[in-house]
C-alpha cells in the first residue's frame, strides 16, 4: 500500500514537467492509485460532497460579488437587480443560497459518521481537529454571508449575534464597537462583513487541503475501524471511489436542483425580503436551520455569558473527542451499547434543532435545558464511562476478512 | 440492516418528540383563533406551474387603477410589462401616460417628461415623509417583492385583500376582550394584530376589465395577487422550465452513473 512507484510517463511534455514539478505523479498517486479501504459504505460519500459544495459556493459567490453592492442603501436593491436584470442572476443566487444548506447537511452527516465509526481516534486526531476547525470557519462564513442581503433577518441576526460579545466581562462593549466599526450594526459593519465573507471561504479551502493531507497520511478509516494491513484490503481510488462519489454527487445535485428550481426560498425566511430597518424589530429572530441546535443551547442558559460560553463549548468539545472516548475499539459497529447512545445523541441533536426554531417560552425552555444537558452529558460522562463498562464485540482480523465473512453470511442466507 | 433499524428508531423518536411538542406548542400559543389563510388555485404552483398572461394583465389593471396611487413597485421597469403580453407599442403608450423627473438639463434645471419603457415605474410619493403624511403615519410598502416577503406568499396577499370586516368579530374579543381598533385603522382578519392602516380597497364593480371578466372582489384579489407574484418572481417560468430539463437530465445521468458504478464494483465486493 505505501510506496506505489510513480508511473513512467511516455508523453514527452508530461515527462518534462514531471521531472521539474511532479504534479502528474502526485495526482496519479493521490487520486488514481491511492489505496482506499475496499469496504467504505455510502456514509463515506459525504466528505467529497462537502468539498464539491464548497467549490459550488465559491464559484457562484465570485459571480455574485461582481454584481453585489456592499452598502446599506444599495445592498438589498443590488440583489433584486441580480434576480431581475442580470442574465441568469436568479440561478446563480438561488444555487448559492441553497448550496449552503447542502453544505451544512453533508457536513453534519460527515461529522456524525466520524463519530459513529470512531474516525477521530489515533492516529487521526489532527485530521479530526482540522475538520472541526473547518466547521467553525464555515459557521462564521455562513453567518457573515447571511447578513449581506441586508434584509430584516440579516440585520437583526447580525445585531443579536455581534451583541453576544458584550457579554464578555470588562472588554465586551469595546469589543462590540470594534467589531461593528461604529456604535451599532451599520454600513461599516456590512462592508467588513462582505470583505470577510469573501476571504473566509479561501481559508476553508486551505484548511480542506490540510484535512486531505492529513487524510492521505493516515489513510481513510472504514466501517470496521480496522487499519489497512495488506493490499487485499484496499482498492485503487480510481475508478472505484471516483465512480461511487460521482453517483453520490448525482443524487446530491438532484436534491439541490429540486430546491433551486422549484422551491428556491424554502430554507429562507420570508421576512428577509423586507429591507433592513433598524427601527423595526421582527417578532421572532430565528437563525438559519443549520444554526438551530447551537441557538437552542445558547438560549438554554438564562445567563447571557453562560449561554455564549456553552454554545462555543458545544462545538469545541468535538476537539477533545479523542480524549473523551476511552474505548479501545474504534468502530461503533462493534460497540453494542455505544450504538444506542450514538443514535440517542443524533435524536437529541434533531430535538435541539427543533427547539431552536421555537419561541423561547413555556415548555420549550425546559426541554431546551434538558436537551442541552444531555448533549454535554453524552460527551463528558457517557463516552468516558462506556470505554470502561462496555464489552465490545470481537473485531475482524482484517478488512478483507470482514468482507469475505459478509459474503459467507450472504451465501448461507 | 441493523444500522437501518437504528436510524429508523432515532428518526421515529425525533419525529415523535417533535410532533408531540408541536401539538403542545400550538395549544400553548393558543394558536388558530383567526381563520386559516384562504388557499385558492394558483396557476404558478407546482413543478409544471406557470403564469396565466390574461390574468396577469387583469392584475395589472387592478394594480394600475387601485394600488398604484399609494404603493411603489421598486426594481421594475415599464419594459417588464412586455413579459405579460403587452406589445411594444402598448408598453410605450402605458409608459408615456406617466410623468417622471429627469435632468438636470443644459440650464441646470430638473424637468418632467413622459416616461419611456426603460424607466422604472413612477413612484406615487416624492419621499417617505410625504407618503407618511398622506397615509396616517405609515409608508405604504413596496409591492414588488411582497409575494416573497410574507409567510404564505400569494395566499397571504389574497386573504388580506378579502380579510376586511366591518366589525371586530367575536373570536377576536373572546381571545382578547380589551381589543379595540385604533382610530384610522381597519380590521383585517389576516393582518398581524388585525389593525391595518390600509382601508379595504376591492369592492365588486369598482373597475371594468378590458376582457369583460366579471370584476368581483374575489376575482380582482386573485388577479392582483397573481400580478404581484409575477412582480416578485418574474423568473418563475424560466426557472421551472429550465429546472424540468435539468432534473430529467440529472435523473438519467445519475441512473447511468449508478449502473456504471455497479458494473465497476461487481467483482470488488
Write the layout of secondary structure elements.
The complex is a heterodimer of chains A (413) and B (269).
Chain A: H1 12-20, H2 23-32, E1 35-37, H3 46-67, H4 75-84, H5 89-116, H6 125-147, H7 152-163, H8 172-180, H9 187-218, E2 234-236, H10 237-262, H11 292-300, H12 304-316, H13 321-324, H14 336-357, H15 363-389, H16 399-412
Antiparallel strand pairs in A: 1-2
Helix pairs in contact in A: 3-5, 3-9, 3-10, 4-5, 5-6, 5-10, 6-7, 6-9, 11-12, 11-14, 11-15, 14-15
Chain B: H1 2-28, H2 53-67, H3 88-96, E1 99-102, E2 111-114, H4 128-134, H5 146-149, H6 153-161, E3 164-165, H7 170-175, E4 186-188, E5 195-196, H8 217-232, H9 236-265
Antiparallel strand pairs in B: 1-2, 3-4, 4-5
Provide keyphrases for this structure.
heterodimer, A: about 425 residues, mainly alpha, Cytochrome Bc1 Complex, Chain C, Helix Hairpins, 2 domains, two-stranded antiparallel sheet, about 0% strand, B: about 270 residues, three-stranded antiparallel beta sheet, two-stranded antiparallel ribbon, electron transport (chain A), membrane (chain A), Cytochrome_b_C_euk/bac (chain A)
Amino acid at each position: 500500500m505505501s510506496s506505489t512507484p510513480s508511473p513512467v510517463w511516455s508523453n514527452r511534455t508530461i515527462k518534462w514537467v514531471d521531472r521539474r514539478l511532479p504534479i502528474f505523479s502526485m495526482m496519479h498517486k493521490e487520486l488514481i492509485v491511492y489505496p482506499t479501504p475496499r469496504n467504505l459504505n455510502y456514509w463515506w460519500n459525504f466528505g467529497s460532497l462537502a468539498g464539491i459544495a464548497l467549490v459550488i459556493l465559491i464559484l457562484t459567490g465570485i459571480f455574485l460579488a461582481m454584481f453585489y453592492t456592499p452598502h446599506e442603501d444599495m445592498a438589498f436593491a443590488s440583489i433584486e437587480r441580480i434576480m431581475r436584470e442580470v442574465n441568469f442572476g436568479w440561478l446563480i443566487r438561488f444555487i448559492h443560497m441553497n448550496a449552503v444548506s447542502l453544505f451544512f447537511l453533508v457536513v453534519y452527516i460527515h461529522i456524525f459518521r466520524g463519530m459513529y465509526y470512531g474516525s477521530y481516534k489515533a492516529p487521526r486526531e489532527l485530521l479530526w481537529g482540522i475538520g472541526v476547525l473547518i466547521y467553525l470557519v464555515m459557521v462564521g462564513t455562513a453567518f457573515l454571508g447571511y447578513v449581506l442581503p441586508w434584509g430584516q433577518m440579516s440585520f437583526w441576526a447580525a445585531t443579536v449575534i455581534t451583541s453576544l460579545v458584550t457579554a464578555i466581562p470588562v472588554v465586551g462593549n469595546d469589543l462590540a464597537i470594534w467589531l461593528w466599526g461604529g456604535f451599532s450594526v451599520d454600513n461599516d459593519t456590512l462592508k467588513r462583513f462582505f470583505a470577510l465573507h469573501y476571504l473566509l471561504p479561501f481559508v476553508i479551502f486551505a484548511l480542506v487541503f490540510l484535512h486531505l493531507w492529513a487524510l492521505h497520511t493516515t489513510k481513510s478509516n472504514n466501517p470496521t475501524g480496522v487499519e489497512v494491513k495488506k493490499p487485499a484490503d484496499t482498492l485503487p481510488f480510481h475508478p472505484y471511489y471516483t465512480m461511487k462519489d460521482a453517483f453520490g454527487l448525482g443524487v446530491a445535485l438532484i436534491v439541490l436542483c429540486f430546491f433551486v428550481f422549484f422551491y428556491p426560498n424554502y430554507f429562507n425566511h420570508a421576512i428577509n425580503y423586507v429591507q433592513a430597518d433598524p427601527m423595526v424589530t421582527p417578532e421572532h429572530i430565528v437563525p438559519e436551520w443549520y444554526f438551530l441546535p447551537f441557538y437552542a443551547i445558547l438560549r438554554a442558559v438564562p445567563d447571557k455569558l453562560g449561554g455564549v460560553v456553552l454554545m462555543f463549548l458545544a462545538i469545541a468539545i468535538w476537539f477533545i473527542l479523542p480524549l473523551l472516548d476511552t474505548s479501545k475499539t474504534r468502530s461503533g459497529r462493534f460497540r453494542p451499547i455505544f450504538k444506542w447512545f450514538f443514535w440517542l445523541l443524533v435524536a437529541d441533536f434533531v430535538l435541539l434543532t427543533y427547539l431552536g426554531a421555537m419561541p423561547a417560552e413555556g415548555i420549550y425552555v425546559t426541554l431546551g435545558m434538558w436537551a442541552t444537558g444531555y448533549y454535554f452529558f453524552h460527551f463528558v460522562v457517557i463516552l468516558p464511562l462506556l470505554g470502561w463498562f462496555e464489552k465490545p464485540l470481537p473485531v475482524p482480523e482484517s478488512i478483507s476478512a470482514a468482507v469475505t465473512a459478509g459474503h459467507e453470511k450472504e451465501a448461507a442466507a | 440492516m441493523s444500522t437501518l433499524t437504528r436510524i429508523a428508531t432515532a428518526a421515529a423518536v425525533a419525529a415523535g418528540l417533535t410532533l408531540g411538542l408541536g401539538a403542545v406548542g400550538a395549544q400553548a400559543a393558543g394558536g388558530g383563533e383567526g381563520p386559516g389563510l384562504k388557499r385558492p388555485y394558483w396557476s404558478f404552483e407546482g413543478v409544471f406551474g406557470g403564469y396565466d398572461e390574461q390574468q396577469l394583465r387583469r392584475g395589472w389593471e387592478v394594480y394600475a387603477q387601485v394600488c398604484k396611487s399609494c404603493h411603489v413597485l421598486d426594481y421594475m421597469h415599464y419594459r417588464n410589462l412586455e413579459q405579460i403580453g403587452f406589445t411594444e407599442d402598448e408598453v410605450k403608450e402605458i409608459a408615456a401616460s406617466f410623468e417622471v423627473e429627469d435632468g438636470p438639463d443644459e440650464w441646470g434645471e430638473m424637468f418632467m417628461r413622459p416616461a419611456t419603457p426603460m424607466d422604472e415605474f413612477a413612484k406615487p410619493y416624492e419621499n417617505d415623509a410625504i407618503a407618511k403624511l398622506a397615509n396616517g403615519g405609515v409608508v405604504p410598502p413596496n409591492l414588488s417583492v411582497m409575494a416573497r416577503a410574507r409567510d404564505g406568499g400569494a395566499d397571504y396577499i389574497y386573504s388580506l385583500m378579502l380579510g376586511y370586516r366591518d366589525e371586530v368579530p367575536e373570536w377576536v374579543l373572546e381571545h382578547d376582550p380589551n381589543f379595540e381598533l385604533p382610530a384610522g385603522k381597519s380590521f383585517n382578519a389576516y393582518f398581524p394584530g388585525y389593525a391595518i392602516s390600509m382601508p379595504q380597497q376591492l369592492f365588486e364593480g369598482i373597475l371594468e376589465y378590458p376582457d369583460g371578466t366579471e370584476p368581483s372582489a374575489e376575482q380582482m384579489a386573485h388577479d392582483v395577487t397573481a400580478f404581484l407574484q409575477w412582480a416578485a418572481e418574474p423568473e418563475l417560468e424560466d426557472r421551472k422550465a429550465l429546472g424540468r430539463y435539468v432534473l430529467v437530465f440529472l435523473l438519467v445521468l445519475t441512473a447511468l452513473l449508478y449502473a456504471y458504478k455497479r458494473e465497476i464494483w461487481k467483482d470488488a465486493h
